[in-house]
Amino acid sequence: MTTETSPPAAKRVPAERVHHGDTVVDEYAWLAAKDDPETIAYLRAENAYTEARTAHLAELRERLFEETRRRTQETDLSVPTRKDGHWYYTRTVEGQQYGVHCRRAVRDGETEPPVSADGAPLDGEEVLLDGNLLAEGHDFFSLGAFDVSPDGRWLAYSTDFSGDERFTLRVKDLTTGELLPDEVPDTFYGTAWSADASVLFYVTVDDAWRPYRVWRHVIGTPASDDVVVHQEDDERFWVGVELTRSEKFVVIDIHSKITSEVRVIPAGNPTGVPAVVAPRRQGVEYTVEHHGHRFLILHNDGAEDFALAYTSADAPGDWVPLIDHSPGTRLEAVDAFADHLVVSLRTNGLTGLRVLPIGGGDPHDIDFPEPLYSVGLDANPEYRTGQIRLRYTSLVTPDSVYDYDLVTRRMVLRKQKPVLPGPDGRPYDPAEYEQHRDWALADDGTRVPISLVFRKGTPRDGSAPCEIYGYGSYEASMDPWFSVARLSLLDRGVIFAVAHIRGGGELGRRWYEQGKLLAKKNTFTDFVACARHLVKAGWTSGDRLVARGASAGGLLMGAVANLAPDAFAGIVAQVPFVDALTSILDPSLPLTVTEWEEWGNPLDDPEVYAYMKSYTPYENVATRDYPAILAVTSLNDTRVLYHEPAKWIARLRAAAPQGDYLLKTEMGAGHGGPSGRYDAWREEAFINAWILDRLGRA
């Protein structure tokens, strides 16, 4: 029986694993049996225990949820994006979980995106897809593909109702509103249309759930007639497919963690054989963008932070330099328009955009006023255009959509996400908050950046509570982002900090390389250094600091719990990769082989095995005083399997029973948690209430 004082008992069934002469006993391996009723019963008992242990926070959770809801304009409309003769946009409606995808015909002389009062439907709109209708009768709903054909007639879309990221692909006739009989189950992300919209390309996965096949489907024919266009047999690689902005080529991207190859099919000849742009070479990564007579090549061949080159689109060969490698300036993407190129880059820990005119004119960077911010291109479907759509945000500036004139350099704010008055009735004022960049010193002398946001007047005497967030893997950068839900923490005096640790990409490719493989522990020690620095610098104190991370950031949480348990008053680990060694040792699991270039291959390499075993959280649980831990996971997660945190919590309780450990499992969701916006707000309110409780601000 589960009560508030007695967590569910996890039976111990020893299972041995032997690698490189090392025998490991996993007493909770039985929890991996997802179809076993005993496993499900145990997870439900954990949920009941967590609910009982947090029952005193029910009122606070509801208050936090209502604060988010009150500050959000629930009925809203995105800035319409022009593509040929239509404006495309998404609406949300108060009380409804999902977006409504729409378009409206461009009217004579209309050059500005249309707007509506308070998010109301535009006059003359056409509803393409209503997520709320599709989600009826389902606890979970997610769109994979949403792809309108070049002629505007067809809509290819795919749906997932369980959270396992396996989608059923359908085609809708937008002239009649009817669904075609075409239906393809078990597809993955990524679709591309042929030029005449007679053919649709899509992707499927193998038994390890690795996207490995690109298929060609002829509209109006059964899926059983579909043809494999490319099959990737090297298990390190995954595939994707897309149509270039110019709509001239279907691009098949074949990528491992460190090597890539691109093949192209003329969109006007969809039955053509895919042509290789450049054969794969181990350690060389490149992407392709079509521009007129050439393919633009963004690559790292002799260029750690990447360089830009081009080659002939008719007969790809040598790469001709366009932008030379500049150490410290990481080139991340290139977008081609008829008369301009736009390069997305990163320097000094901040994102940026550089415009390169074609046929004359000096390149220039677009300037932004704040010391901390995040900027990137938004939807820009039209190839022949004189302006681009970009998205901008910071820790204090709500998501903002701008149109930027590529010739005059004039930038027009089209929309900033509304933030409605909070509980006190006062409108949101960014001037009442402050963002700051600080630096911690890692054990090896490396300076690690920290971004902070807090309400003005928050004391710097160590008395302020603080939440520190981290990730640090896959070269993913935790760039500044605005959060409505976070305001509820800031207004209660909590400082929010982001540790930009190695393994991420904030300071370029080298920053990533220094936090992976046999240098992975830098990620964990960097985070601890950031936590210690926040205390030393007077931002907070050790008993007022809660750490939070998700997925690979959840691995980080488990690692620092073992490494420096005294540094934190609590730890939130969402969909945490805490049993990394066991998973990476099993090639049959989803994504394992493709991960070996990120973590190493412990199956074949004894050094990697020993190194991973020395830091994997589950392997290193010991009898010590741990901070309170909240682990949140999802039963249908295919990226980090639910049993990793379930086993971790069970082992923590066995090794250090004096601690406070909670497990919350979403029984009908995937890696991203609940799918509906209100459900997601409630999940965030649950976590934030727990954090406030640990910080003494409940």
UniProtKB/TrEMBL annotation:
Domain Peptidase S9 prolyl oligopeptidase catalytic: 481-696
Start and end residues of each Peptidase S9A N-terminal domain: 7-415
Any Gene Ontology biological process: proteolysis
Pfam families on file: Peptidase_S9 (PF00326), Peptidase_S9_N (PF02897)
Gene3D superfamilies: alpha/beta hydrolase (3.40.50.1820), Prolyl oligopeptidase, N-terminal domain (2.130.10.120)
Domain of life: Bacteria
Coiled coil: none
A GO term for molecular function: serine-type endopeptidase activity
Keyword Cytoplasm: no
Claim: Metal-binding is one of the keywords in the record: no
InterPro entries registered for this protein in UniProt: AB_hydrolase_fold, Pept_S9A_N, Peptidase_S9_cat, Peptidase_S9A, Serine_Peptidase_S9A
Keywords, alphabetical: Hydrolase, Protease, Serine protease
PANTHER family: PROLYL ENDOPEPTIDASE-LIKE, PROTEASE FAMILY S9A OLIGOPEPTIDASE
Family the entry assigns: Belongs to the peptidase S9A family.
Protein name in the entry: S9 family peptidase
Organism per entry: Micromonospora costi
